[in-house]
Amino acid sequence: MKLPRSFYEQSTLDVARQLLGKYLVRKHHDGTTVGRIVETEAYVGPEDRACHASRGRTARTKIMFGPGGYAYVYLVYGFHNMLNIVTEAVDFPAAVLIRAVEPVGGVEIMKVRRQTEHLRNLASGPGKLCQAFAIDRKLNGDDLCGKVLYLEDRGEPVSQVVTTPRIGVDYAGPWKDKPWRFLIKDNEFVSKP
DNA sequence: CAAGAGATCATCT
DNA sequence: GATGATCTCTTGA
User: Fold this and answer.
1) pTM listed for this prediction
2) Residue A159 confidence (pLDDT)
3) Which chain C nucleotides are covered by protein, judged by CB under 7 A?
4) So what's the pLDDT on residue A51?
5) On the CB side of A157, how many CA atoms lie within 13 Å of its CA?
6) Domains, in order of start, for chain A
């Protein structure tokens, strides 16, 4: 049920695709929050200029050079935390950004954290999702095979998957057009169609 | 509803 | 010193 290390050690595009329909579980002293993943993006290796690790191994990116199945959490724009799942083998830097989930458990906690009553606005975007699930940089490097933050397979197949270019990476030159964003078709909880 | 501005800070040059 | 893997609010039809 809980996804094992071997799941994360597959190729990044496969992991990004297969994460759709899986469940994100976050244990916190306020309570547990659970969401069904409906949108992901792949950031693949040293060549991909949209991937932070394309600028080399630094204090921030070193986690991506480690083994799969660890959390890479960082802050963008001074406000928003982004949750990524490190993939592939040691020394191949890659990760999958979790962009949106459908709220499933702990919805009341999410409403308080997000200051909204609207289910569709709780976790429909990478920054919103982190706020709803109380994920911040303190979770950077956390082991997803542990007990605080992990993913579950509940045996639910995903009907149809759509791919698009990734969001917000116009600076990435030829890499910006790669169809490496994955969404569940017609799902109302994605960040944008 | 669509478009645009502003917020704010860790990270790398 | 510049720059984001974003969000929210305001503005104007």
Assistant:
1) 0.96
2) 86
3) 3-8
4) 98
5) 2
6) 5-184 (3.10.300.10)
